[in-house]
Amino acid sequence: MRKPSRKKLPERGAHDSERNLANNISRGFTAALFMMCMDVIVVRQVVLEA
Predict the structure, then answer these.
(1) Would you give the distance in Å from CA 5 to the centre of its chain?
(2) Buried b (16+ CB within 10 A) or exposed e, 29-50
(3) pTM for the complete prediction?
């Protein structure tokens, strides 16, 4: 998986520094950050199965 561009994330509302984003990713994504990252890397569909 490609690393989300830190230049494109602020356009979608993630205004954290690169270090803060790295910490958020290592601790676990929030749903909002996950969706912003998926948008940046052009993922249009996510299938969740139980």
Answers:
(1) 9
(2) eeeebeebbeebeeeeeeeeee
(3) 0.54
